[in-house]
């Protein structure tokens, strides 16, 4: 601890602090510059995050064919069947007459097994056992290879073995403790034109569960049923399916009842669903260009530099907030990367799509540029015109946004936009990096590292300067003290002579 001023009576500590305050002015400027660059870096990253989110929205909405495949399907008697669109961009209509629903093959024990489900199977069979189960697939064919299960009767009960069968095979089994019988049902519906739908192999099935070897034999014995296909007529054409749920022309049909009565159905574009996706795209585009335009035109207050820690200590919290609001303003003003991106995005959306068979411009579907110059290129939607375009040909709108092409002019509007966003995000990342970037990998980061190095060197210099001041004041104090001592000596000498 340094204590000065004992000889001179001066407040040396305060004097050194005041001198160092002046010496620290260049360091404060470096700290302010560093803070400003950090604000600028963060503002760049905020823009990049918005662009990234907008890019994902484009991909998941207006560029996705499924967006335009949304259909509203009406059925004259929904109790007979339901229809939903999977991936068709065309409409689907006609008449369906359901004659028979698909059902699964079954079989069950001819008589009680007499098994106690709590006992190990070794009470009924001995030695390592292997059973095989073959059953119908969802498409109406049989498995290429039966499912095999090898087990030790001393380790299994009927319940544990049935659980294994149910988990690995296409058959579901159930032991009814009330009757002592086992029921087996194919997990998939349908009829196997070449034979049985359930085929079992193994002494366990025959000698322990009292089951037939397949469901056809069980049906003949009165202990089971054969699987059957769904039978129906589509626009007068009689046909069959192994399942009650199947696909026709990209639409999923689910049969519910077989009344053998003609039922009409028709589909049309889900105008509201498609409209919602396009409106969301426009809204996010407008928010992005509003943000970028705002940053490009935000005023820079050069008289409001970032506050130092010492300055903040002498200010109220509200004063600091108002000051920094202006100090942070204009970090991206007139930025060339963002200005170029905005111009390119406008060009992407307003230039016609070359070679398009249907629509070629946004205006054709009711999306135009705002007439208010303060909106700076925001899009506005004529909802009535857009709905008409969706109703007429949603696939044409998909092509307008997502068309592929060898050149930019031939590409769809959204495809162009994503390329511009991708290029801009890369340029911004080169300048401002991202959250996981190290400073050495981007321009502002390298500038920040350089300022840190300057600050470290200046801090070392300040320590030397402060030491010099203290040495000088200490030397002055010593000189004053010697002078005081000499004066006292002389006074004593003169006093003695009296």
TrEMBL record:
Flagellar hook-associated protein 2 C-terminal domain span: 227-485
Compartments where found: Secreted; Bacterial flagellum
InterPro entries for the chain: FliD, FliD_C, FliD_N
Keywords (A to Z) from UniProt: Bacterial flagellum, Cell projection, Cilium, Coiled coil, Flagellum, Secreted
Coiled coil regions, renumbered to chain: none
Pfam family of the protein (one): FliD_C
Domain Flagellar hook-associated protein 2 N-terminal: 8-104
PANTHER family assigned: FLAGELLAR CAP/ASSEMBLY PROTEIN FLID, FLAGELLAR HOOK-ASSOCIATED PROTEIN 2
Subunit structure: Homopentamer.
Function summary: Required for morphogenesis and for the elongation of the flagellar filament by facilitating polymerization of the flagellin monomers at the tip of growing filament. Forms a capping structure, which prevents flagellin subunits (transported through the central channel of the flagellum) from leaking out without polymerization at the distal end.
Family, similarity comment: Belongs to the FliD family.
UniProt-recorded name of the protein: Flagellar hook-associated protein 2
Organism encoding this protein: Rossellomorea pakistanensis
